[in-house]
Amino acid sequence: MLMLRRAASLADRRVAATTLARGLSGAARPPIPPFSKETAALKVRAAEDAWNSREPQRVALAYTTDSAWRNRSEFINGRQEIEAFLTRKWTRETQYRLIKELFAFDGNRITVRFAYEWLDAEQQQWYRAYGNENWVFDSQGFMAQRFACINDVPIDEKDRRFHWPQGRRPDDHPGLSELGL
Fold this sequence. Notes:
Blueprint: H1 2-25, H2 37-53, H3 56-60, E1 63-71, E2 74-77, H4 78-92, E3 93-106, E4 109-120, E5 126-137, E6 143-155, H5 176-179
Region (Disordered): 161-181
Pfam family, one: DUF1348
């Protein structure tokens, strides 16, 4: 019974936080912290879907207006810089396909591991990038900080593992663990 009350209390707090967030800013970006395993996984899949759209403006809307990033060795601040960065990235990194997987979560923090495949537009060389991201969210569910460590590995086209049409990864496509990555 106590577990049910705690679950109900947590659900009530989330509803109240969402209502408060909407009242203060006009919108929240659910799911909002504190994250459960299920809501953290939903947040990860939503991020994967947005990045696979390759639409910089759409992706940037998931971040706070003053979001701070470290992506490899580049420091990026705010949505405008995020959009510019992603535009540059996807001009070079064509045929981009990404899979993210929840690694850990606690409160307002999520850590993911990911891999993506891309074709260098100039060199016509395929790569698979492997990495980890640490995310910190504000109370409304927007990502306030993103720290990404990424390593690119050249691959032959025959070694590609991500073959779905560009856009959202199909629900029946294996994730990183299922692919042995």
